[in-house]
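Lecture 7 notes: from sequence to structure.
We start with the chain below.
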Amino acid sequence: MAQEPLSAIDWLSQSVTAAPTPAPSPNEPAVTDGSALPADVSVTVLGGPSPDGVGLLPAQVTGLPRNLWGLGRTDDIVTALFSHDLQGLPALQGLLITLLLAEAEPPADAGGTGRLLVARLDRLLAIGALDQTEALLEAADATSSPDLFRRSFDVALLTGTEDRACDAMRQNPGLAPTFPARIFCLARSGDWNAAALTLRTAQALGQIAPEEDALLSRYLDPDLYEGEPMPAPGKPVTPLSWRMFEAIGETLPTGALPLAFAHAELRPTAGWKAQIEAAERLARAGAIPPNVLLGLYTQSMPAASGGVWDRADAFQGFDQALARRDPVAVSRELPLVWAQMQAMELEVPFASLYAERLAALPLTDKAAQLGYQIGLLSPDYQRIALAPVTDDVRERFLAGLAAGELKGLVAPDSMARAIAPAFVDAALPEDAQKLLDDARVGEAILWGMGRIAAGVQGDLRGVTEGLVLLREAGMEDVARRTALELMLLERRG
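Predicted structure tokens for the same chain:
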């Protein structure tokens, strides 16, 4: 993987050096832009292995075709993977993660470069899905190339398993560590003298940037710099620099850093407040299971009031009322906790945790209506939709949407009017239909998700087109859940 992938995120640590691009033989003509080959010709080794086919979820689990990318080109697929922000649309975010983890035949032009694999890893990192990134790296053998190992090393730094990553670096001579990574790992292993000698060597050779020098020097001997101002964090902050700032007692807050850094706050060494705030960010992105949030919200008694403490207090009050199966107490606590979840855009994780138990309680009036709507945001939405609380136009539409049957139902608002044609009679635009005809199902699904994201920002035609695409691609469950989220969540731009 000598070529830097198109999708590279800008905050990766320079932990290992990339393999140099082989120089052409003196007798071999250089390949230039003036080549006689047409631009759209793809060359690959027939039957040759490609890391781009690595995945965690087989086709029988995902419901996606094995030939997911069809005749698509790697450049186009990578661009599509990074084209849209799906935050705030949990069903689509979940579908994106499924796409990224799916086992699939590589694109026709993949060769053995693994560029699509790296792009998938980078998209997972951007979402903050570190557990999934780590599992995909293990399946692909993270030590097989510098590009893969860089990502594995950073995941380890953010999840507190950096010693294992340093061991892997030592055991694989083909991975040439940079000076900062070598010094960090030597110090982690307790060989401080070797780490200091390596730093002096890097200084003498001019192989280390001034800001890295300042941070590493302080990391190796913080007492020597006591009373002196801290070096400013580099831009961008990398997981390696973040980890060293933490080691010298100057932890950088992760709230303004890329989402993946929030995982560092989930470790037991972080405070409870920081853990909850990190879990909220990650749960909102669909990067961690809702149970992580549940465990943190109920871990202890809130230490104060306001902000995160009010959310924990409301969550605990509701959880305890539900555990007692007390309809009166649940009716009192449910609006309070729901308002807190709405403020943090955590409605879907909350629904996943509690909808089934809520549906089993004999709630009445507004609590029953709220419980019903929460149920429609859960994986059990189809069963819950069979027991509507009222017979008003909106609730009938929602129930029909859960069943995928809207004929004869009145759309109660503008979003519903955009959704309804997708489940009745709307046709796909020509360009989207061509993607499906060319078996470029993965790209087609990404196109549909992008159109829905545009619809949330005001182009409601995109909602119709995107939902039609999902249904045509066999993603019926995702289409229904997305439509319900568009109706029930306040995510409009």
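Points to note: Confidence is low (pLDDT under 50) at residues 1-7, 19-48. The CA atoms of residues 46 and 351 lie 48 Å apart.
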